[in-house]
Amino acid sequence: MSITVVGSVAFDSIETPAGRQERCLGGAATHFSLAASFFTDVRVIAVVGEDFGVAQESVFHARGIDTRGIERAEGKSFFWEGSYLESFNEAKTHNTELNVFATFEPKIPDAYRDSKFLFLANIDPVLQRRVRDSFPQARMVAGDTMNYWIKDHRSALLEMLKGLDVLLINDTETRMLAGNNNLVQAARAVLAMGPHTLIVKHGEYGATAFFSKRSFAGSDVVRPPFRVPALPLEEVVDPTGAGDSFAGGFFGYLAAQREITPPAFRRAMFYGSVMGSFAVERFGTERMQKLTRPEIDDRFKLFRELTHLD
Amino acid sequence: MSITVVGSVAFDSIETPAGRQERCLGGAATHFSLAASFFTDVRVIAVVGEDFGVAQESVFHARGIDTRGIERAEGKSFFWEGSYLESFNEAKTHNTELNVFATFEPKIPDAYRDSKFLFLANIDPVLQRRVRDSFPQARMVAGDTMNYWIKDHRSALLEMLKGLDVLLINDTETRMLAGNNNLVQAARAVLAMGPHTLIVKHGEYGATAFFSKRSFAGSDVVRPPFRVPALPLEEVVDPTGAGDSFAGGFFGYLAAQREITPPAFRRAMFYGSVMGSFAVERFGTERMQKLTRPEIDDRFKLFRELTHLD
Questions:
Q1: B176 pairs with which residues across the strands?
Q2: pTM higher than 0.80 for the full model?
Q3: Contact assessment for residue B7 and residue B18, using Cβ atoms and an 8 Å cutoff
C-alpha cells in the first residue's frame, strides 16, 4: 500500500573526512522516500523554491515517486550546511536557511488521501499533527522528531505523539524526551505518551524496537525488544540521511506487507538497517539513485549472517 | 577442556547511581573465572594479600574453581576505587593501590600445565607473554588489554599480541591500538598484529567479532563479522567486570566444545553477552554467586528472540 510522507526537501552542503559536496539534494522526505520507493509507492508533501529544477525532480521520478504534493514557492529551498569532521555520529551545523520552509503549509493532493501509511518526517510538530489529522483512515502512522522540538516545543510535540503509532528517534532524543537515562525505562515512558512502538536508533550500532501491549493488534502478548545491528562499514562517506533511509526501508517494507506481524516487523527493521547502510556510502542521494533490488537482497542476507546463530 | 586464566584478584570499592559498595571481591581474573565456571573447569593464577580470606576463597570454591595458582603474599591485595556516576560506559578511577600486585611474578602450578585454553586477562603484557610461553601446547589463547598498555607499553604489547589467537578489547582501545577511527579498518590492522580473531566490545550495544583467514583452522573462507547485542536492561547496578564476564562466558563455552566451528563461535559470543548481562545486575560478584544454569539458558533464549528474524 502507498505511503504519504511529509517533510523537508532541501539542499545540503556537507563536509566529512571523505570530502566536501556542495548543494546535494537532501532533506528528510527525500531520503525517506527514495529508500521506501524500493518497496512500495511513495507520495511526497513538501515545499521547494525556484532552485529546485528538473534535475532534482527527476531523482524522484526515476524511482516512481509521486511529487504532485511538492509545492513550488517563490524564493529558495531549505538549505543546510554541516560537517562530520570529529564524529560520524553527530553533525555540526554551520548554517541553516529555512527559506520557503519558514512558511510551509502542507497541502495534500486529493490523490494522496487514500494512503493508508503516513510518515511524518522531522518538521514542526504542529504541522505533523495537522497532516496526521488529514488522514483519519490511516492504518499506520510513523514519525520522527529532534532535540529542538523536544526542548522548546514540548506541548505541541506531546500533542503530535498522541497521533503516532511508531516513533523513530535516537538514543539522546529518547533520554531527553523521557527525562530518564536508562534506555528501557525511558522507552516505557515514551510509549506512555502515545506511540505503541518506539524505535531507538543507535547510529553505527543499529536500532532497538520497544513494544507496548498495543503494538500488534489482536495480540495480548507484550513482545520483548528487538535489536537490529548496523553493518560495520569499511568506509562511511556521508551519514546525512542515514536515519531517514532507515525509516524509509522500515516503513516501506511494512507498507508492502499484507499483515503486520511480529516477524514482518523484524524483517522491516532489517530492511531499515540495510537501507541506512547504503545511504552512507556516498554523498547525498547518490547511492540510492544507483541502488538495485538485488543489491538490497544481497545485503539483507549479509545482515542475517552478521547476526544469526544458524 | 580446562581454562587457565592469569590476571587480577582484587577488592573494589564502587559507586554507581544504584549505591555504593565497599571492598567487593573483584579483579579481571575473578569475574572471568566465575563466568567461565558455568561452562568448564577453570584454574586461576593471581596474587593476593593477607586481606584475602576464607570468605573470598569460598566464592571461587563454590563454583569449583581451582585456586592453587593464587599466591598469598605479605601485604594487601590489589585495590581499586571507582565510580560510574555520569556514564555506565566509563569508570572514573578515584584510587588504585597495586599492593602485592606491584611485584607479581606469575607462578604456574604443575597441575595447570595441561590446560589447552589460556586466558590472559588485562595485566602487564610482559607477564602475559611470559605466561603464554609457559603453555606452548595451548590450543587457543585469548586475552585482553587496556589503554594504559596501548599508550605507554606498546612494544611489549605488540610482542604479546603475536602470541594471541583472540583479542578482546573495546571500541576506543581498538581505534587507539590501530591509530584508525574506522572500526573495520582498525580491526584489519589489529588482526595483522597477531590475533586471528578480534572481538570488539561495545558496552551497552554488545560486541562484534572480526575474523582473519586463520580464524577457523582448515577453512579458506574469511567469515564476515558477527555482531551480538547486549540486553537492554531495566536496571544496571554495577558495570564493573561486565567485559571480563563476557570473556568468561565466551571462552568458557568455546573451551567446552569438541570443535571450534563458526556456529560454535557465534553461540560463544551469545553466551558472552548473556554472562555480561547478569554481571551488571548486582555489585561485584554477587549475581554470579547466585546464578544458575537454567537462568543462563533462559536468557540465551531471550537473546535469540532479541535478534533473530524467525
A1: none
A2: yes
A3: no
